[in-house]
From TrEMBL:
Belongs to the bacterial solute-binding protein 3 family. InterPro entries: SBP_3_CS (IPR018313), Solute-binding_3/MltF_N (IPR001638). SMART domains: PBPb. Gene3D superfamilies: Periplasmic binding protein-like II (3.40.190.10). This is Cysteine ABC transporter. It is found in: Cell envelope. SUPFAM superfamilies: Periplasmic binding protein-like II. It comes from Chitinimonas prasina.
Length: 261
């Protein structure tokens, strides 16, 4: 076999192997279901309702995406500590559970385009007259945050802010309502839920810090599946489905940054 014939044969084998490689899109279409992993204990994103059924923002988004793909959603619950390992092991097709697409995770998984955007957000009393537009505005003031949270680290990095840490959001929201702290800090996606659940005279304040996105991870080597997922996401945004679900849980479109029109 001469060199040219050998190279031609090698290329033909490579192309045949590529053509024969099964994309996850073929698998889910043949199966008829989209296996979606989530925690099931992370309200308002996913939780069990009064009937013991899975409910929440990510659950409804998962259902809408499956419908656009012509599939039935099959939800699989997993603790956060093992959810990414389960995806890597092929126990499910995707995770719809507010997963950040970090560089380290991108080494193992591919991701859709971000479907939610969030930042740190202040919480203040409803009758607050002072203007807190940034953490710097809280110099000389007291700020309540969750113990060991990213927001505690963020707040402690601002000189002059007295940071008070609490075991739970319920405790610092109670202190905020009583005037023991001047503001509190949490994720902008969680603030509407926390304020609603607290049933205290509080409201969401200014967004502070950088904007970060969450996306849907899936196993590498499935480009057609990834393209179909991105198209399904684009479709539910275009037809208003995403916005309707988003407003139901967050009172705004969370595919856009806090404060965007």
């Amino acid at each position: 076999m001469n060199k040219r014939t050998f190279l031609t044969t090698l290329l033909a084998v490579a192309l045949a192997a590529t053509a024969g490689a099964a994309d996850l899109l073929d698998t889910v279409k043949q199966r008829g279901t989209l296996k979606i992993a989530l925690e099931g204990t992370y309200p308002p994103f996913n939780f069990k309702n009064g009937k013991g059924e899975l409910d929440g923002f990510d659950v409804e988004i998962g259902r809408a995406l499956a419908q656009k793909l012509g599939l039935k959603p099959e939800f699989i619950t997993s603790e956060w500590s093992g959810i990414l390992a389960g995806l890597q092991a092929g126990k499910y097709d995707v995770i719809v559970n507010q997963v950040s697409a970090t560089d380290k995770r991108r080494e193992i998984f591919d991701f859709t385009q971000p479907y939610t955007l969030s930042s740190a957000q202040l919480i203040v009393r409803k009758d607050e007259k002072r203007q807190f537009k940034s953490l710097a505005d809280l110099k000389g003031k007291k700020l309540g945050v969750g113990q060991g949270s990213n927001y505690a680290d963020l707040a402690k990095g601002v000189e002059g802010v007295e940071v008070k840490t609490y075991p739970s959001a319920a405790e610092y929201l109670q202190d905020l309502a009583l005037g023991r702290v001047d503001a509190a800090l949490n994720d902008s996606l969680l603030v509407p839920y926390l304020v609603k659940q607290a049933k205290l005279p509080l409201k969401g304040g200014a967004g502070v810090g950088s904007v970060e996105g969450s996306a849907i991870p899936y196993l590498k080597g499935n480009p057609r599946f990834g393209a179909a997922l991105d198209k399904a996401l684009a479709d539910i945004k275009a037809d208003g489905t995403f916005r309707k679900i988003s407003i139901k849980y967050f009172e705004r479109d969370v595919s856009r940054p806090l404060g965007a029109s």
